[in-house]
Amino acid sequence: MLNEGVMSMERLEGKSIFEGIVIGQPYLRKKKKVDVTEYKIDEDKVDEEINRFKFALKETKQEIKFLIESLKGRINSDELKILNVHLMILDDPVLLSEINTRITSDLINVEKILESVIEKYVDMFNQLNDPVYRQRGLDIQDVGEKLIRNLLSEEGELEDIEGKILITKELFPTELLKIHHFDINILGIITEYGGETSHVAILAKALGIPTLMGVKSIMQREWDGKIILDTRKSSSCVIIDATDKVFEGYENEQEELYKKVCELEKLIELPAETLDGGKLDLSINVGGDLDMLDLKKKNPDGIGLFRSEFIYMDSEFFPSETKQMEIYEKVYNDLGGDRPVIIRTLDIGADKHLSYYEMNDEENPFLGLRGLRFTLSHKSIFKEQLKAILRVAYGKNIKIMYPMVTNLWEIEEADKILQEVKNELKAAKVDYKDDIEVGIMIEVPSAALLADVFGEKVDFFSIGTNDLTQYILAADRLSDDVAHIYDCYDPAVLRAINMVAEAGIRHGKKVSVCGEMAGDPMAIIAFMSFGIKDLSMLASFLPRAKHLIRNSDMNDIRKLKNKILSCRDSNEVKDLLKNYVM
After folding, report:
1. What is the pLDDT of residue 287?
2. Residue ranges in 72-130 assigned as alpha helix (H)
3. In Å, what is the CA distance from 77 to each residue of 209, 283, 289, 298?
4. CA separation (Å) from 396 to 316, 326, 567?
5. Terminal CA-to-CA distance of the chain, rounded, Å?
6. Which strand (E) or helix (H) includes residue 282?
7. With contact defined as beta carbons under 8 Å apart, do 203 and 171 qualify?
8. Domains in the chain: boundaries
9. 344 marked ligand binding residue
10. Are 64 and 80 in contact (CB under 8 A)?
11. According to the annotation, is 568 in a ligand binding site?
12. How is domain 2-32+158-262 classified at the CATH fold level?
C-alpha cells in the first residue's frame, strides 16, 4: 500500500546507516566557514604568535579529553577511539613543525597559516583517492576548524535542532558527539556526503540515530514542511511533499514497528530453535565497554567474537599480561553459565591503529601488515597476550582465534608460538589451559579456498563477512565510489561462505559467521541453508534473529541451498531470500 503512495511523492535515495522510520520537521544546516583574516606580524611578535598557537593547542586537547571523559559509558570505546585519532593529530610533529616554521618565515598570523596548512593536507589526502586517507583528511579538517575557532575565541554553533531531522552537506564526528554530549535529541540525519564506514556513520549507528548518507543535491533545494525519513534497508529514502494518506500509512508503520520491537524483546529468554527442532547458537560480538554491559540480560549463547584490540586501543601503552587477564576474567564472569568466549588475538593494521605505536606507512594498508601478520612479526607482544589468555582460560570455556589468516604457514607459526608459551607456563608451574581450542577467521579468498586444508589444523572457523566481501570483490568497503560493487549478497561471496561451511562439516568442525551479515535476516536464511548453526552478532540483533529462526522450518530452508548457489547476481539472491523473511 505504502509503495503505491510513495511512487507519486518525491523520493530521494541514499545509503541507510541505521534503520528506522522518522517523521518530522527538517533542519537544513548551511554551515558557515570560519572567516579568517590575514594580517602581518612583526618579527618581535613571532614568539607571542607561537605561544598563541600553543595555548589554542592545549585548549583544543582539553576540550577533546573532556568530551572523551564525559562520553565514557555512554558510547562504546570502539567509537571513542575516533577522538583519540584527533588527539594524535594535535600531537603530530610534522604538522606542528610546519606551522611553527611558517609563523617564523611568513610573518603572518597563525590562523591564516593554520587554514593554509590544513587545506594543503586535506587536498593531498583527497587526491590519493583512498577512503582511508580521505577519512584522515576529514579528521584533520575537523581538528583544524576547532583549533581556528579557539584561536579566534569563537564557539562552534549548536543550532536549534532539537526534535528535528538534521540535513547537512557533511557532519564531523566531534559535531555529532557534541550534540550527544548536550543531550540534544535529533530525530534523524541526512547527509550529502559520507559512506557506511565513515567515522560519522560509525557514531550514528552506535547512538541509534536513523541516518541516510550520500543523498544527492540536498543542499540546493528548499525544505519546507514535514518529511519522512525511511532508513529501512528495503527503502533507504527520504520522502518529500507526502500526502496525508502516505503520512498516515507511515505513522501506522511506525506504530507497528514499535509493537514489533516490544514483542521481539520478549524472545530474549527463549532458544533459537526452528519449528522442526533445529537448534542454532546465537552469540554476540564484543568490541568495547558498552558491549560488556548487562551481558546476562542480553542472554546470548556466548561471545563469538571478543575484539581484544579495544583493550590495546584504550591503553596508553601495550597492556600488561595482568591487565589483560583482569578484563578477560571479568567478561567471562559477567557472561556466566560457562558459556563460550572466543578471544580474537590482537587485530590491528589497515584502519585500526594504536596511539602509542607508529605503524609503517603502506601504500595499501588493507593489504599490508595487519592481524596475525602483525603479531607474528611482533612475537613478544603476541606471547604476552597468549599467556594472559591461557592463564585465564584455566578451567573455563575460553577459546583463541587468529585473525586475518592467509596460509598454512601462518597457522603453524602461530601454533609454535602458542606451544612455546605453554612450555614457559609449565616450567614456571603456572596453571593454564593446555587443551584450549584454537580457531581462525576466514576473511580472505585464500582462506576460503584452503578451508579443507585448514580444517585439519584448527578447531573451528569464524567467517568475517565484511573483509571477505571486500577481498573477493576487490571493492574497498570504505569507498563510496564502489559501494554498488561491495555487496555481501554477491554469489561469489555466498559460494565462498558455502565452501567454508562444507569444509567444516567434512572435518566435523564448527563454522560460525561473525560479520555484519550474521544479524541480517536474509543472510541468516542463506547461512541456515548452508548448514551453518553458529552466528555471532550485535546484541541488539538477537531478538530479531530469534524471531526469524523460531518461525522457520529448517528442512524447508535446507532445500534453498542449490537455488541460492545457482543465482547469477545479488538481485536474484535477494529476490529469492526475501520471501523467507518476515
Report:
1. 81
2. 77-90, 93-106, 110-127
3. 18, 20, 6, 19
4. 29, 14, 43
5. 17
6. strand 281-286
7. no
8. 2-32+158-262, 43-151, 278-580
9. yes
10. no
11. no
12. Glucose Oxidase; domain 1 (3.50.30)
The SS3 call for residue 463 is strand
Which DSSP string corresponds to 202-245? HHHHHHT--EEE--TT-TTS---S-EEEE-STTT-EEEES--HH
pLDDT on residue 350 = 76
264 SS3 class: helix
Query: Are 390 and 432 in contact, with CB atoms under 8 Å apart?
Result: yes
Q: How far is the C-alpha of 250 from the C-alpha of 171, rounded, in Å?
A: 27
Residue holding cell 503512495? 5
pLDDT for res 6 = 47
Radius of gyration (C-alpha) of the chain in whole angstroms: 25
CATH annotation of 43-151: 1.10.274.10
The reply to whether 232 sits in an annotated binding site is no
Query: How far apart are the C-alpha atoms of 357 and 347, rounded to whole Å?
Result: 14
Non-local CB neighbours of 105 within 8 Å, separated by 6+ positions: none
Q: Which residues contact 416 (CB under 8 A, 6 or more apart)?
A: none
Please report the sign of the dihedral spanned by the C-alpha atoms of residue 487, residue 490, residue 493, residue 498: positive
Q: Are strands 281-286 and 237-240 parallel, antiparallel or unpaired?
A: unpaired
Report CA-CA distances (Å) from 290 to 331, 421, 543. 12, 31, 18
307 is in an annotated binding site: yes
pTM here is 0.74
CATH architecture group of domain 278-580: Alpha-Beta Barrel (3.20)
The CB-based long-range contact list for 570-575 (8 Å cut-off, 24+ gap) reads 570/487, 570/489, 570/490, 570/491, 572/491, 573/489, 573/490, 573/491, 573/494, 573/526, 574/489, 574/522
Q: Give yes or no for a contact between 437 and 399, defined as CB atoms under 8 angstroms apart.
A: yes
The label of the residue with cell 529462526 reads 549
How many whole angstroms separate alpha carbon 490 and alpha carbon 533?
Answer: 21
Q: Give me the catalytic one of 86, 180, 199, 353.
A: 199
Helix H or strand E encompassing 534: strand 534-537
Q: What are phi and psi of 212, to 5 degrees?
A: -125, 125
Calpha distance 60→54 (Å, rounded): 10
Indicate if 237 belongs to the active site.
no
- Coil/strand/helix, residue 416: helix
Q: What is the mean pLDDT of each run of 10 residues along the chain (582 residues)?
A: 55 90 92 84 93 92 80 64 82 90 94 92 81 78 89 72 91 83 88 80 84 91 90 88 92 88 87 96 85 78 94 88 96 92 93 79 84 96 98 98 98 98 98 98 98 98 95 82 87 98 98 92 97 93 93 96 98 94 78
Query: What 3-state DSSP class applies to 193?
Result: coil
Cβ neighbourhood burial of 328 (10 Å; 0-12, 13-18, 19+) = buried
User: In the annotation, is 514 catalytic?
Assistant: yes
**462 has which bridge partners?**
441, 512
Residue tagged active-site, from 237, 353, 507, 514: 514
What is the enclosing helix (H) or strand (E) of 380?
A: helix 379-392
Report d(CA 526, CA 503) in Å as an integer: 17
Helix, strand, coil in percent for the chain, rounding step 5: 50, 15, 35
Q: Is 424 annotated in some ligand binding site?
A: no
**Whose CA is closest to 436, among 405, 415, 454?**
415
C-alpha count within 13 angstroms, C-beta hemisphere, residue 33: 6
